Amino acid sequence: MPFPIRGLCYGPGMGAEGFEPTTFSGTGLACRRGGHSVFAGLDFAVGSGQVLVLRGANGSGKTTLLRLMAGLANLSTGILSWDGIPIDHDPEAHGIRTRLVGHQDGVKSGLTVAENLTFAANLQGGAPEAAIQNALHRFGLGRLADLPGRVLSAGQRHRLALARLLVVPAPLWLLDEPTNALDEEAFATLSAVIADHRTKGGMVVVASHGTAPTTDAVALDLGRFTATPAPHWSDAA
Q1: Domain limits of the chain?
Q2: Is pLDDT above 70 for 33?
Q3: Which of 47, 127, 145, 173 is disulfide-compatible with 114, CB 3.0–4.6 A?
Q4: How far apart are the C-alpha atoms of 22 and 96, rounded to whole Å?
Q5: Which of 134, 189, 126 is nearest to 156 (CA)?
Q6: pTM of the entire structure?
Q7: What integer pLDDT is reported at residue 237 of this predicted model?
């Protein structure tokens, strides 16, 4: 029988991973920034094998919500829960089961491409060399493995950031505009990687303005939860 380790299930003798069925949800979420409401009264739920796509205009709070989901920012009100248990009850466990890829690629300029992946893996307890090589291969980085991060193009740096998703398994992926700087081939790769993650029971939350790299996703329009600003005195007739 597979045995669970912090939300993961490892098959006996094969190293093939799957994720335990679970639900990540938010209830009554509100966030204020600089004294102003970003959103309020926001609810969501995403389960194993599902994708939630965050939509909304610039400033509607997509990046903010992803950071909240990752446990990197504080809610004004509301509760984020993993299988009904608030994530702030065990922030370390939530960090282990979550991977965030944001606008900052986090590439270490002085490390090679392969060393960047090893560094990222070590932050999560380490990974076998096979996992590093798989991540390089999937995102077309094999021939760049020995190049330092400082010489990579924007698209290559972004592929390297996305490749970190594969080095140490985690059930929850939080992706902020993940298709930025990707060509058609890399877009197709990301779509395939997300599909593989879903078949293992993983879940994905994507903030996107354009075409999301997935199908059968549920959309959440953050504009529905943006507070209407109070009229300014200068608007009066």
Answers
A1: 1-97+171-226, 108-169
A2: yes
A3: 145
A4: 15
A5: 189
A6: 0.87
A7: 32
For residue 34, name the pLDDT band (cuts at 50, 70, 90). Answer: confident
Q: How many CB atoms lie within 10 A of CB 147?
A: 14
Phi, psi (rounded to 5 degrees) for 100: -115, 125
> In this model, does residue 149 exceed pLDDT 60?
yes
β 203-207/172-176 pair status: parallel
Q: What is the rounded distance in angstroms from the CA atom of residue 132 to the CA atom of residue 139? A: 11
Cα 195 to the chain's mean position, in Å? 14
Q: Whose structure tokens read 């970190």? A: 164
Q: Three-state SS for 171? A: coil
CA angle 203, 207, 211 (to 5 degrees): 95
Q: Under a CB-based contact definition with an 8 Å cutoff, are residues 186 and 20 in contact?
A: no
CATH 3.40.50.300 fits 1-97+171-226, yes or no: yes
